[in-house]
Amino acid sequence: MDLVLHSVGGLSLDFSTLPQQLVNGLVVGAIYALIALGYTMVYGVLRLINFAHGEVFMLGAYTALLSSWVMGFTPDAISKAFKADQPLTSSPLNLVIMLLVAMAVCAIIGAIIEFFAYRPMRNQSRIAALITAIGVSLFLQYAGQLFLPANPPPSISQEVNPYQKVVSFVLSPAQMNAAGDVIKPQMDITVTVGKIVMLVTVVILMLALTYLVRYTKAGRAMRAASHDFDSASLMGINVNRVVTFTFMLGSALAGAGAMMLATFEGTAMHPFFGLQPGVKAFVAAVLGGIGNIPGAVLGGLLMGLAETLVTWIGFSQYKDAVAFVILILILLVRPGGLLGSNKVEKV
Amino acid sequence: MSLSKILGTRALSVVLAIAFCFGLDAFVTGQLNEYVVRLVMLAGLYVTLSVSLNLINGITGQFSIGHAAFYMVGAYSAGIVSNAIYKTQPLAAPAYMIISMLIGAVFAAIAGLIVGMPSLRLKGDYLAIVTLGFGEIIRIIVLNQNQWGGSYGYAIAPKYQAGWLIWLLAIICIATCRNLLKSAHGLAFLAVREDEIAAQAMGVNVTKTKVVAFIVGAAFAGAAGALFGHMESFVNPDLFKMEVSFLVLTMVVLGGSGSITGSVLAGATLFILPELPRIVSFKMSLGLLLSVLLGIGVLVWMNRKFLEKYHEPDKVKRTLVVAGANIGLVVLAIVVGKLLNNVPVFGTTNYDANKIRYMILAVVLLVIMLLKPTGLLGHHEFSWDWVKRVLNRNKTGEASA
Amino acid sequence: MPLLCLKDATIKFGGLTAVNKVCFDIEKGDLFGLIGPNGAGKTTCFNLITGVYEPTSGDIDFLGTRICGMAPNKIAEIGICRTFQNIRLFGTLSALENVMVGAYLRHKTSLLGGFMLTPAVIKETAELRKKAMELLSVVNLTDVANSRACDLSYGKQRRLEIARAMATDPKLILLDEPAAGMNPYEKDELRSVVFKIRDDYEKTVLLIEHDMKFVMGLCEKIVVLDHGEEIAYGDPSEIRNNPKVIEAYLGEPV
Ligand SMILES: Nc1ncnc2c1ncn2[C@@H]1O[C@H](COP(=O)(O)OP(=O)(O)OP(=O)(O)O)[C@@H](O)[C@H]1O
Ligand SMILES: [Mg+2]
After folding, report:
1. N or C terminus of chain C: which is more exposed, having fewer CB within 10 Å?
2. Which residues in chain B are closer than 8 Å to A288, comparing Cβ atoms?
3. Domain range holding A243?
């Protein structure tokens, strides 16, 4: 006898877990948004779908892992310390270092990819550039399979993450009848402190990005280039530098997202780790209107929420398809995405 | 050209095609070992896939990157229908295969129609991502159908490995696209690729053209899928992942998008990449791998920096120099790699070829894109006129020398 | 019955009324000019007539049938074809093939036949090629028939656009700034081409042009637009002396 399970059209929905799912969706969505920003900025400037962005993300996660090893949190050290009954714990400083290293390394990788693979393709057809991007992506995946540890999939050890502590927010307490049976379970939201840290970090990064794009010279140059690449270069803007900057910025955000996903969510790492989040973040960027920065954030959040809602309804196995279904539906109604402009080609 | 000459040529090509398929069946597939036969069949399937994608991508200019979905729809639909009716129908397996092929084609064509619809509203990258999305949706749906084996896979009866039929399909696919390009109707497709608005202003029915391209392209992929399903007699959704779409797309672009000849050549050769580790089971050491990768980097750099600017009126000499420089570099890279293997740091790790197959694909892709972004053949087609011209030129060259 | 008839044709892009209540009739055999300063809405008028945009209000009739809302290819089919101000040739196709695309509109064989390359299709393709060659010679482009359209010079591209539009066998042909970027010699050549189209091929011509000398010497009737509004209509001498037109062009000798 469970009164909370409502049956809607043959589905049983447990509303007591809905708030929890929404929060989970928000967290995943925040990461998607972070990755989506990289897609959107690059597309804005170069009109190129940077398929390799997901792989930059993957490399960011590995970088975070390696930097934690360098700081002494190797699996060996951890198990030794555990046996000696003196478990290792990390300080926030360790985490900040991991985050910064991941961001920096990703930024460099992004710039390298741009220089070697995309720059030579700049005057070629869009399809040639896209194929190159697919090539870079495949290359990084399979090179990663050769060179990166993946068996068994390492994830950043729990010891590194001191924020496993759980906080609960009770929304409505459990109700019992006279006999003491629960007629309505407690409705609450349980999150780890890590997830809260993650959300806060994402917000900080986005504010920083907004500042960078809006108020700095580099940001202005970037906006000019995304408005009209050729005119911008004629106006004396060093577009090569703008493009490098854009790639570095986007890749750094992906690195941050990767570090947090691997550390706080404990997602297992493998060389194809970037594929799913990458594709979904790209869909998020298109959903919001590719080239549009607020659109990417909106798209990412929607994507995260939609996914968890689908899981909540009971179709978790279709979770990965839902991104595309939403995308197709939205594009058919608004071909430019939610916040993108529906430009009509002037004839 | 007179009518009788046209009909004569036509009859000759049909006879040649039939003779080719018959010869394949009678003399080749019987003699070779099972695995090589499999390769011959896969080559045929990939030729069909790349030529049919070329119709959509290269000829009509609709940026579709989810071709594996049509392949999959063909394989599953033909398999499902065959499992249901094959035992109770009167035809022998070879004859039945044609029906199966048609079933696959029809279902894939329906999928093509559905995927083609967005192309009426969406362009370029947006369309690309939607086609990719459709592919993923179809795959995930099948993945979750327990009656079709889900992720485990689906057994298809009868098992039927018909190299001749696969190549017949490939030839029909090539002929269809080639015919189209030779007729004025083909110009409508090309016009849509070049400029939709102008094409429409000239009276081309853009909607119809795009949808037809998607339907026909998908139908051929579906027919290939049907034959693939019966050839393997067991399929699972993993065989139709994004990588397969990318491989086919790579074939189209590397061959030169818009060039059917290019698609055929690329399809018949590149399909080998994912199969490579089964053919040559070599181990690759870190040193060799690194030096080959480095060598490729130098190769791209050398070509772009020097060879592109190397002007030499004598084409033959130029080709020889360019090819010599490239081959020399590759050999050098291998030699350096072998030497590096003696250095303990590099020589220690061995890599399974199985793991580097898609990396090879990626490297091939990147190198060709960086050196020749329009693909190997650009928009050019093979034709007998061209062969004659080249032969004549060589002759006059010799005469003057 | 006029061939083409605009009745209060209006189109708004957001807040901007690009064409505002424009009315004019074109009779069969006219050589009709549409002029006005930059941004007056001339090209937009063409886009309305050829179905690229649908008017926000008002009507456009061709041979008595309403053509608003018709697909551009349908409009081409009933006999209106155009050239583009910002040249829109099929770049990688040859000049000949470009014209053949225009001629393809009047094809009779089925697409299925095209996939099978039936003898009928081969024959038809050869006919289209012949027709296209003929039109190329009208615009003096026979020598570049096999060059890629994007490799041609600007003036040749403009003439190729005309040949391509002619190939659709229109009753009314719309030329958007056909003389733009041409030198005086090319302009003379163009003038004779336009006359040939009208007199030998018996087409009705509506053209946009900024070169006043060219328009005045060519057109028999002229409509002047300014800021989307129709400010004058008449023959060249009337237009030349119309104060509103002079004001619109702000002192430019008309
Ligand atoms: N698709 C569109 N969306 C928004 N505004 C448009 C669109 N097409 C045209 N306009 C605007 O309508 C006005 C008229 O443009 P139009 O191209 O018709 O001018 P024109 O008379 O052809 O000028 P020109 O002589 O420079 O070619 C311009 O202000 C233009 O910016
Ligand atoms: Mg104009």
Report:
1. N
2. none
3. 5-175+184-333
Rg over CA atoms, chain B: 23
Three-state secondary structure call for residue B254: helix
CATH topology for the C1-79+172-254 domain:
Rossmann fold (3.40.50)
Q: How far apart are CA C91 and CA C103, in angstroms?
A: 17
Question: What is the C253 CA–ligand 1 centroid distance (Å)?
Answer: 24
What does the pLDDT read at residue A2? 42
- Supply the mean pLDDT for chain A: 85
Tell me which residue has tokens 């091929």: C201
Q: Is the pTM of this model over 0.80?
A: yes
Q: What residues are paired with C30 via a beta bridge? A: none
CA distance B188 to B194: 10
- The b-or-e profile of B220-247 (16+ CB within 10 A means b, else e) is bbbbbbbbbbbbbeebbbebbebbbbbb
Interface test mutation site (partner B, options A127, A140, A320, A334, max chain B beta carbons within 10 A): A127
Q: Are strands A182-184 and A187-192 parallel, antiparallel or unpaired?
A: unpaired
Tokens representing C11 are: 């189109």
* Chain C contact present for A127, CB below 8 A: no
Q: For residue B103, give Cα distances in angstroms to A295, B141, B240.
A: 43, 20, 19
- C78 has pLDDT over 50: yes
Using the predicted structure, report yes or no on whether residue A184 has a pLDDT greater than 50: yes
Among the residue ranges A193-202, B136-145, B340-349, the one predicted with the least confidence is: B340-349
Q: Which residues pair with A187 in a beta bridge?
A: A172
Count how many Cα atoms sit within 13 Å of the Cα of residue B247 in the half-sphere of its side chain: 28
Task: Report the pLDDT value the prediction gives residue B347, as an integer from 0 to 100.
Answer: 57
**Residue B255 sits in the same domain as residue B298:** no
pLDDT, one tens digit per residue, over B368-387 is 788 877 777 777 777 777 67
- Spatial separation of the C-alpha atoms in residues A323 and A330, rounded to whole Å: 11
* Inter-residue contact B200 to C73 (CB < 8 Å): yes
- Residue C44 contacts residue C231 (beta carbons within 8 Å): no
Lowest mean pLDDT among A97-101, B54-58, B326-330: B326-330
A120: closest CA among A202, A182, A48?
A: A48
Are residues B289 and B270 both part of a single domain? no
CA distances (Å), origin A36, targets A149, A292, A296, B98, B393: 27, 10, 5, 46, 55
Angle between helices B3-23 and C119-138 (to 10 degrees): 130
> Structural domain of residue B311, as residue ranges?
283-378
B202 vs A: CB within 8 A: no
CB-based contact B190 C73, cutoff 8 Å? no
Question: Is residue B290 located within the same domain as residue B262?
Answer: no
Q: Facing residues of B314 across strands?
A: none
Q: Specify if A140 maps to a domain.
A: yes
Task: Determine which of A51-55, A341-345, C8-12 has the lowest per-residue pLDDT on average.
Answer: A341-345
At residue A89, the 3 state secondary structure works out as coil
Indicate which CATH number applies to the domain containing A68: 1.10.3470
List the single residue in C73, C88, C90 with the smallest CB-CB distance to B203.
Answer: C73
Instruction: Report which secondary-structure segment, H or E, holds B96.
Output: helix B93-116
> Is residue B334 domain-shared with residue B268, that is, in the same domain?
no
Residue type, C237: S
If you average pLDDT over residues B209-225, what whole number do you get?
Answer: 97
The strand ranges marked E within B72-185 are: 154-155
CA of B39 to the centre of ligand 2 (A): 58
Beta strand B350-352 pairing with C204-208: unpaired
The verdict on ipTM greater than 0.90 is yes
Mean pLDDT (chain C, rounded):
93
Q: What is the pLDDT of residue A15?
A: 77
> Which position has the higher pLDDT, C222 or B257?
C222
Q: For chain A, what is the domain count?
A: 1
What's the farthest any 2 CA atoms get from each other in chain A?
80
Average pLDDT on A13-24 reads 82
Supply the mean pLDDT for chain B. 85
Alpha helices for B29-183 (secondary structure H) = 34-54, 67-85, 93-116, 124-143, 163-182
